[in-house]
C-alpha cells in the first residue's frame, strides 16, 4: 500500500499505515483556521450554548420533571429523563456556543461520575454561576478575583454542609 507524505512512502504493515494516517490527520488539522474571539463577544456566544443546553436539561428536574425525546442517527428516538443523557446528546453548529455547552456537559458528567445523580441540578447551578460570572466580568471585575471568590464560597458551603451532616448507619432510627 502507498501513502503520500512528502512523496511516496511504502507501507508494509497495518500499524505503520495507522501511524502515517495519524500524521496526515495532524498535518491536515494544523491548516484549519480557528475562530478567535475575546471579551464579551466570546462570553455571550458561549453563554448562548450554555443556556440552550441548560434549558433542555432543566425540564427533567425533580420528580415532576418531564421526559425529553432525543433524535438518534440510527434506530428509534430515545426517551429519557436523565439530565446527563440529554446534555451529552446536544451539539451546536456555532463553535463558541458548542464550547459553552461543552463546559456544562463536563459539569454534568463529573457529577454523574462522582455522585451518580444530581446532574440536572449541577447543570442549572453551572449555568447560574456562568451567567453571574459573565455579568461580573462585563461590569469590570477581575476574572481571577471572581475565581477566588467562587472558590471561597465553595469552601464556606462545604464547611456548612459538613457541620450539619448526619451519618447514617443501617439503623432505621438514624434515617
TrEMBL record:
Primary location class: cytoplasm
One cellular-component annotation, GO: cytoplasm
Domain of life from the UniProt record: Eukaryota
Keywords, ordered alphabetically: ATP-binding, Chaperone, Cytoplasm, Nucleotide-binding
Biological process, per Gene Ontology: protein refolding
Keyword Heme tagged: no
Record-stated family: Belongs to the chaperonin (HSP60) family.
Name used for this protein in its record: Heat shock protein 60
Species in which this protein is naturally found: Piliocolobus tephrosceles
Amino acid at each position: 500500500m502507498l501513502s503520500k507524505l512528502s512523496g511516496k512512502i511504502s507501507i508494509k504493515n497495518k500499524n505503520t499505515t495507522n501511524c502515517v494516517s495519524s500524521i496526515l490527520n495532524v498535518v491536515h488539522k494544523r491548516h484549519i483556521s480557528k475562530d478567535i474571539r475575546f471579551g464579551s463577544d466570546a462570553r455571550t456566544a458561549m453563554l448562548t450554548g450554555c443556556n440552550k443546553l441548560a434549558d433542555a436539561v432543566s425540564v427533567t428536574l425533580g420528580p415532576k420533571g418531564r421526559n425529553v425525546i432525543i433524535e438518534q442517527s440510527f434506530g428509534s428516538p430515545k426517551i429519557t429523563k436523565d439530565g446527563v443523557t440529554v446534555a451529552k446528546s446536544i451539539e451546536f453548529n456555532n463553535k463558541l456556543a458548542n464550547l459553552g455547552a461543552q463546559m456544562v456537559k463536563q459539569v454534568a458528567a463529573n457529577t454523574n461520575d462522582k455522585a451518580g445523580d444530581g446532574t440536572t441540578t449541577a447543570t442549572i447551578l453551572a449555568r447560574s454561576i456562568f451567567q453571574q460570572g459573565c455579568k461580573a466580568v462585563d461590569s469590570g471585575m477581575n476574572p481571577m478575583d471572581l475565581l477566588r471568590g467562587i472558590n471561597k464560597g465553595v469552601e464556606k458551603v462545604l464547611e456548612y454542609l459538613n457541620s450539619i451532616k448526619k451519618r447514617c448507619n443501617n439503623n432505621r432510627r438514624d434515617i
